[in-house]
Design goal:
By secondary structure, this protein is an all-alpha fold. Helix content is 70%, strand content 1%. It has a two-stranded antiparallel sheet with strand order 1-2.
Length: 434
Amino acid sequence: MNDWFQIVIVYLLMVVMTLFIRRIEKSWLAPAALFPLVWSAILGMSLLLAPGFYFSAGALFFVFLQIFMFFAGSILAKSSSGNAEGGMVGQNITDDFFFSRTPRLKGFVYVGIVTGFCASILLLREHQFIFGQISDFHYVVDTISGMSDERYEGIRLSRGIMLCISMAYAGNLVAGFLLAMTRKTSERILMIFSLIPLILFTLIYTARAVFLFGAIMFLASFLAGKLFQKGTAFKLFTLNRLLVALFFAVFIPSLFLLTQLARYNTHDFSTYQVMEVWDKLSVWFFGNFSGFSVWFDSRPEICLQWGKFTLSGLFEQFSDYQREGGIFSTMVHIDNNQRYTNIYTIFRFLMEDFSYTGTTVVIFVAGYLSQWFLKQLLGRSLLGVVGVAFVTAIILFSFITSIVAYNATLFAFAFFGIALWLVFRRGKRAGPLT
């Protein structure tokens, strides 16, 4: 049973802390303010829309403390003497210099779009899809269902497909950044179009994370771009942006509903099947903290892994470590109707790797670094753009899992930084466009 009195008290404390941090930071886009905002919003929707799920006051208070330590780290960085100066090559970027190089940066968006579509083509070819039967609905659904079955059996995507997806993610990062800077309608449409290849791949492969990674990186670089352009004067909550948020609040669940129906090899979308699938999806949207609550209250024995969960992709790449599908294979029940999940938010990753105390230290250091990156960004540094976008993406995905557990996302951010450096470095090879 949920102890609603304690849960509500701790949640209200979190809301108050969120508003206090926003007042100190003067912008919702500052990582120290965005972190509590994201968690207050997600937890508020979960408590309101899924009251039957299990929520732990102890787990909630632990999250409250971690958010406070993240803020404390940022305060320490802010109070340190001196201002960060210089960008990736030791020089700040002026508006004139930036817009003179924008056409070159758009080339990386085109590369991301092309490689994104190539990922879908390669996936279909590897599964011997007959393109002449693309109009056969049953054939398409059976093919998609077969791909989903293979994924659950542990069969992974080929290196060629993963490379294409990584390049598409990098294109999303560049596109989000440029969307924040441009005012031309045609260019805005192009930047938003960069998400279409990942939507297509998600519909084919029925892997929700593929689109979510791209969308979150796109949003993270967009927010970093707005800070780069307008500083703390940028307003997050406006009517237009709330309407956009409402659109995606409808679009994303609808997209996931379609992929889930295809995953179950559903040929006729009856009302009963749709409601049954949506019931399962509600766990994915609102049950992540509940999963963490069950695990947290079970008083798990922590055996330090030193990053094998949080950075599992790198450990798998450079050691004999083999991660399981979904990283955590153990399912936990989160309500009395036998709903279950194996998604535990980023906090289980950190706790499994560094323990309770170690997680607090890591969060504090992350807050310090986030503020340092923000200083760099506000000083017109491209290093700050990459750093703030990276931290923002981790924050936005933190209620699900660790976004840095996947090499494709790490590669995308590395490529994003390289792209910015190649385009905006000064010197003979990077002279003004004529």
